[in-house]
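Reply to dn_fold:

You asked what the input looked like. This is it:
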Amino acid sequence: FVLMCKPRQKIAAAILGAVIAAAGLIAAYYFYPATPLKDGLFLKYGISLRGIPSGAEYTVSFQRGRNGWYNARMQTTGFMQNDCSLLVDRYFRDKNGINVFGPIGALLWINPRGLRIGSNVPAGEVIQRREWNGHAVYVIQDPRLPNCYGYYELKTGLQVGYVNRWSSMKLHAELKETNAKGL
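and this is what came back:
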């Protein structure tokens, strides 16, 4: 089409094409955010009871599979022994669109884009932005349980901790080791 146009029309068509391409890139950035999920990513959390380290650990690791899916392997050691795996997409969702849970039942990742105090996300309501155990985080209150809070790193959206002050066991989880970029 552009080749059959006059010189002025060629310039206008080129500018229009550039504007459309830029709009597409902006839309892709906004609607399809980057995630920290990469081949070989692992997150290891320490779990404590009533503030006392229990020796239990929760580790989740990801290996790239076929067609853009990742094999997520979740292992828990100590008093909560478990070992399972499932396929997830780059947004930490399984084949049914359900978000992957981290230690103690909170979401492992939330999209950090657009978060602000008072906003609602799948993990609950953002109630605070602060420093927590060396990480700049958003604090998200779990809507299912009173006095349960997830701590999500500002830039990556990965869970760096979870505090359950509601149950009699007072479970806490804290990220101890990872190879995630920026943590």
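The chain has a mean pLDDT of 82.
Hope that clears it up.
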